[in-house]
Design brief:
This protein is 37% helix and 16% strand. It has 297 residues and is an alpha/beta fold. The chain has a domain of 203 residues: NAD(P)-binding Rossmann-like Domain (Rossmann fold, 3-Layer(aba) Sandwich). Strands 2-1-3-4-5-10 form a six-stranded parallel sheet, with helices on both faces. Helix 2 packs parallel to helix 3. The longest helix is centred in the first third of the chain and has 21 residues. The radius of gyration is 19 Å and the shape is globular.
Length: 297
């Protein structure tokens, strides 16, 4: 049974790299957190969602569970939409039933990447791949069905848990002297701890709507890789290449830098610059038995 003396939060996707940090940060902020895995809660099943929400009666729901296989989605349109759109519909409907705040984790891929300045929250969306389309559909369901919804778009996420670009680069460096990395895609690397802290602060407000929460500044994947190896003390020859050198089923936005105007307007600090965040990640990596999670003051 749920502990009715504490605020209760459900985190979907709680075993993913962001989900694990969300659980730890929210727990540290005084929430009783429920993090069901896919086997405990298939959120594409409306009846399963209804049962779980009736059991927990949440005060907040952070919907971080998603279909994230960007290339596979091009051939699995139905699967991507089942999870990212209709699964979100199910979660949003039940969150509204219990008056719970809803945070839907979305993506920079809702934009087409033809811009040249950081995207504002109000700018027109135009996804260039199925993954982006399915996540945008999830945004629309969340906003339509929940009166207490936060849409949090983020990008280039990495952290201590799960697979990500930082770990991939370090693994490749174990077996290669030269690594080619694309230099014509520009975005914002985002450290999961920083993102989880921003979400935990945002749900303390009543400022519902669309937010961008990503690392400050901007860089290419090549520049990000170079910074990773510098901090790791690894000597690797990096070869900057165009995206055409790595043809993939799903098109990627060329420029997807996210501005954080709405976040700061809501009284939530912007996420740190991506280079400072990378320093914090390596500090956590080196002290994995004592990760950097702070309670909210």
């Amino acid at each position: 049974m749920a502990d009715m003396t504490k605020r209760r939060a459900i985190v979907t996707g709680a075993r993913g790299q962001l989900g694990q940090d969300l659980v730890k940060v929210l727990s540290g902020a005084g929430w009783q957190v429920y993090g069901p895995g896919r086997e405990e809660l298939d959120f594409t099943d409306p009846e399963a969602v209804e049962r779980e929400f009736a059991r927990i009666r949440p005060d907040a729901v952070i919907h971080a569970g998603a279909y994230t296989q960007v290339d596979a989605a091009e051939e699995d349109y139905g699967g991507a939409f089942l999870v990212n759109a209709f699964g979100t519909r199910n979660v949003a409907m039940e969150a509204e039933r219990y008056g719970a705040k809803l945070v839907y984790i979305s993506t920079d891929y809702v934009f087409d990447g033809t811009g040249s300045e950081p995207y504002r929250e109000s700018e027109r969306t135009s996804p260039v791949n199925v993954y982006g389309e399915s996540k945008l559909a999830g945004e629309k369901f969340a906003l339509r069905l929940s009166s207490r919804a936060f849409i949090v778009r983020t990008s280039w996420v990495y952290g201590l848990n799960g697979g990500n670009f930082v770990k991939t680069m370090l693994t490749l460096a174990d077996s290669r002297d030269t690594i080619s990395v694309v230099n014509d895609q520009i975005g914002c690397p985002t450290y999961t701890v920083d993102l989880a802290l921003a979400v935990s602060r945002l749900i303390e407000t009543e400022r519902f709507g669309i937010y961008h929460a990503a690392g400050g500044g901007q860089c290419s994947w090549y520049e990000f890789a170079r910074a990773i190896f510098q901090r790791a003390g690894r000597t690797v020859w990096l070869n900057p290449v165009d995206s055409s050198a790595f043809p993939r089923p799903a098109k990627r936005p060329a420029y997807s830098v996210l501005g954080q105007t709405a976040l700061t307007a809501a009284g939530v600090p912007a996420l740190p610059h991506w280079e400072a965040a990378l320093d914090a990640f390596f500090h956590e990596w080196e002290h994995a038995n004592a990760p950097r999670y702070s309670k909210l003051g």
